[in-house]
Each structure stands twice: as structure tokens, then as C-alpha cells.
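C-alpha cells as discussed.
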């Protein structure tokens, strides 16, 4: 513990990363994003866009716009992490105060643990499919235990153990894992794309389907598609400093994210459409779910290799996008008791208590609730950008972030402009999820949250500062 730092705000995991230890290059940042962008949800996203009436080429336009906006947001929010070597849960104290910061930290942590649970259970199903293909004995273990077959419990234990192994020893092992996993998933995806090109004798029938939308209907659907694509990564836009704090320079984090985020997404989306085009010719219908495609092909070797790839892709996104931020958030809540290894194991345990197998096939209510929580993180992003670039002018007193009663303390640890903005912005941005008359607002909830968070926070902060001067 450094002298003067509060024990409930500081430990070695939350401390700024020393410049000589910030050794992530642009390649590390790029491979981390490659591993995250290639996931089942992103693969199936093109299906949702085409179901709305967009053509395959228009899907690519949506992806290009959405990921360009995401890249700019990630780049801007990543800068203070690289500049000062601090994680999100420490950076956010400058805007919310040390006590007020716990609100966005808990919200982000909840989302991270939930998504870890969801994705890990998807990998559990893939592991079960692999082992059932390899062993008839394994396939026979179907006695239900607490709502799930015993073989599924064993598969889940294996998946949880793999997550524990990768996340042990902190970000250094994660960095090395992603250096292999990200490119490897791309290689397997290219193999699937070559297969799709051969079956379809070219791009396939999906690329010849014309758009069904024109005029205002096209504009509205295009905006909805962009918002939906951004929504997949809106929570990570908040805690990108958790990664960028390890990058050696601003140039490395910009180049790495440019390659790993928009460029990879633009390569991955046509790969998904081409592969699915082949399923139209083989089965008479598009199969967008990769697990369902493996089962439909009914080839044991393909099931094993494909299932292993899905598991690898899930591990790749889960350890970085969910376990890592959730661990830092838990450390922030209990700095006296947790380090990264203990916190990551706690994330794994909490993931079990989300019991994903009980609602996995009936998740509408859960996703609606998470949309509301995610809607509140849009204002958090706007608050962070306004605070760092306008209010603080890109200059932070890092030591003060670890002390009570200092320049970021606000009123008793609460900087009320940020708290008020979060409540108001979150309510407005999420209103479309709960008020039918405002459903259209839900289509642009992230953008609404960003603009409300940015503008309202600046207005309230100026008023707060004027009142503070008058009181003095």
C-alpha cells in the first residue's frame, strides 16, 4: 500500500501499470480483437439484418458504419488507459467520485458475468456434442440433475476449467492465448469460406437476393442495424481501458484496434454469408447457427473440429470481454481481499449461479433486462468522454484517484452531476424497452445515451462548479 492511498481504493491490481511493463504491441491488440469479433453472435448477426429486408451488400454497409463508429469510440476511451495505465474502475472515479463510481462498475460487472455465463454455456453444448460424438458411453449419461443431464454438467466443468486455466496468471497468459487463438479462428473461418465458395460455385445465392427496403423504411432499418451491431460491443466501449492500459503507445492501440475491429469485422461478415449461402444449396434453407450447421452436416470429424473451433472462439471472447473486466470490477469492490486470480475464480463461480441452462432457450426476458442495463452504459460512455476530453482536458491527477477527500471526491465521494446524468440518460435511453409508445427510441438507444450523457454531464458539471465557487 502506498502512503496516503485509501485501502478501499487501491491494491496492486488496480495500481497504474508502470510504463516499462506496458508491453502490448499493436499485434497483441489486433489479435485480441480478432478473437472477440469472431463469435457466434457476430456470425448470426448477418441473418438478423437480412431478415429485416437488407441485401447482403447492404449488410456489409451496416457493418462498415457500425464498426467505424465503434472504432472511434474505442479509440477515444482507450486513450486514458494507455496514457496513465489505469483500468476502467479507477478511471471512472474522476467523473463519478470514488463512491459514485461503484454504480457503473456494478452495472458493467453484472453484464460481464452474465455474458460469461451465456457464452460459456454455449461452449458447454459444443463440448457435449464433441464428447457424445466420440463416445457412445458419454452420450448415454442423460439422467437429469438439477435441470440438466449429468453429461452436460461434466461438459460444463471442463469448459469452466479451461476458462480458469486461461485466466490464471492474469493478463499475461491471456495475451499469449489471444496471440494464437485470434488468428487460428480466422484460419478455420477461411477454410469454411472456401468450402462455401466451392459448394455455391461463387458467392452463393444469398448475395443475389435484392433488398426489400427503400426510402424511409430503408433508412430506419439501416439505423436499427447499426445500433444493433454497436449494441454487441457497447459495454466493452466502457471498459476498453482495462486492455489499453497494457499497450505501450497510443499508436499501437490505434493500429491494433483498426486492424482487429472494423477490418476484421468486414472480413468476417461476408465469410458468414458465403458459408450460409452454401447451406441454402445443400439443405434448401439458410442455417445461420454454426452449431446447427455442424449437426446438419452429420460428419463426426467435422463435428469434432468445428465444435473445437466454436469452443476456442468462445474462450477467446469470454476471457477478454467478460472475465477480465468483471475481475477488475470485483477487485474494485473488494480491494483488500481480491487479486486477479481470486477475482477471476469468483467470476466463474458467479457464472454458475446465473443458471443459464434454465432459461437458455427462453431468454427473451433476460435479454430485455440486459438491454435496459446496456442502455444505461451508453450514458456512461458519454460521461467518460465529456469528463476526460472537456472537463479534465486529458489531464488527470492519478494519485487523487486513489484517495478520499481529494479533487475527485465530489460531495462525500459522490460527484452528483455524473450520478444524475446516469439516472436521467439511462431512463431515457432505455425507455423504448419498457414503454411501447417509445419503441422507436430503443432502436437508437446507444446513440441517445451517448449524446445525453455527454451534453447533460457537461451542463450539470458547469453548474456544479459555479455553485462550488459561490459556496467558497
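Sequence:
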Amino acid at each position: 500500500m502506498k502512503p496516503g492511498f485509501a485501502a478501499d481504493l487501491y491494491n496492486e491490481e488496480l495500481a497504474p501499470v508502470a510504463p516499462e511493463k506496458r508491453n502490448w504491441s499493436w499485434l497483441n491488440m489486433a489479435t485480441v480483437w480478432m478473437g472477440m469479433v469472431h463469435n457466434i453472435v457476430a456470425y448470426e448477426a448477418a441473418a438478423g439484418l437480412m431478415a429485416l429486408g437488407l441485401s447482403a451488400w447492404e449488410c456489409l454497409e451496416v457493418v462498415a458504419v457500425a464498426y467505424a463508429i465503434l472504432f472511434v469510440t474505442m479509440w477515444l476511451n482507450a486513450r486514458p488507459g494507455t496514457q496513465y495505465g489505469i483500468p476502467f474502475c479507477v478511471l471512472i472515479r474522476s467523473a463519478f467520485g470514488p463512491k459514485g463510481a461503484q454504480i457503473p462498475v456494478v452495472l458493467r460487472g453484472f453484464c460481464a458475468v452474465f455474458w460469461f455465463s451465456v457464452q460459456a454455456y454455449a461452449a458447454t453444448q459444443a463440448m457435449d456434442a464433441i464428447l457424445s460424438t466420440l463416445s457412445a458411453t458419454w452420450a448415454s449419461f442423460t439422467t437429469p440433475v438439477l435441470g440438466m443431464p449429468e453429461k452436460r454438467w461434466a461438459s460444463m466443468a471442463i469448459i469452466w476449467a479451461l476458462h480458469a486455466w486461461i485466466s490464471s496468471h492474469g493478463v499475461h497468459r491471456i495475451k499469449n492465448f489471444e496471440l494464437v487463438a485470434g488468428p487460428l479462428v480466422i484460419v478455420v473461418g477461411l477454410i469454411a469460406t472456401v468450402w462455401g465458395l466451392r459448394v455455391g460455385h461463387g458467392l452463393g445465392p444469398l448475395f443475389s437476393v435484392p433488398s426489400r427496403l427503400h426510402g424511409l423504411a430503408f433508412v430506419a432499418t439501416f439505423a436499427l442495424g447499426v445500433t444493433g451491431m454497436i449494441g454487441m460491443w457497447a459495454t466493452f466501449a466502457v471498459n476498453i481501458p482495462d486492455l489499453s492500459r497494457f499497450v505501450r503507445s497510443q499508436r499501437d492501440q490505434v493500429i491494433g484496434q483498426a486492424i482487429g475491429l472494423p477490418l476484421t469485422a468486414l472480413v468476417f461478415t461476408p465469410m458468414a454469408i458465403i458459408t450460409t449461402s452454401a447451406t441454402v444449396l445443400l439443405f434448401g434453407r439458410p442455417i445461420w447457427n454454426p452449431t446447427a450447421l455442424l449437426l446438419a452436416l452429420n460428419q463426426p470429424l467435422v463435428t469434432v473440429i468445428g465444435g473445437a473451433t466454436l469452443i476456442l472462439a468462445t474462450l477467446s471472447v469470454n476471457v477478454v470481454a467478460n472475465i477480465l473486466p468483471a475481475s477488475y470490477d470485483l477487485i474494485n469492490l473488494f480491494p483488500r481481499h481480491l487479486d486477479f486470480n481470486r477475482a477471476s475464480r469468483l467470476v466463474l463461480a458467479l457464472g454458475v449461479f446465473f443458471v443459464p441452462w434454465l432459461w437458455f432457450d427462453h431468454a427473451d426476458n433476460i435479454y430485455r433486462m440486459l438491454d435496459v442495463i446496456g442502455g444505461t452504459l451508453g450514458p456512461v460512455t458519454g460521461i467518460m468522454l465529456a469528463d476526460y476530453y472537456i472537463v479534465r482536458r486529458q489531464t488527470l491527477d492519478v494519485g487523487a484517484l486513489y484517495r478520499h477527500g481529494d479533487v475527485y471526491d465530489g460531495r462525500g465521494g459522490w460527484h452528483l452531476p455524473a450520478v444524475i446524468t446516469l439516472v436521467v440518460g439511462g431512463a431515457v435511453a432505455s425507455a423504448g424497452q419498457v414503454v411501447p409508445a417509445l419503441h422507436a427510441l430503443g432502436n437508437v438507444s446507444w446513440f441517445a445515451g451517448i449524446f445525453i450523457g455527454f451534453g447533460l454531464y457537461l451542463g450539470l458539471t458547469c453548474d456544479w462548479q459555479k455553485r462550488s465557487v459561490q459556496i467558497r
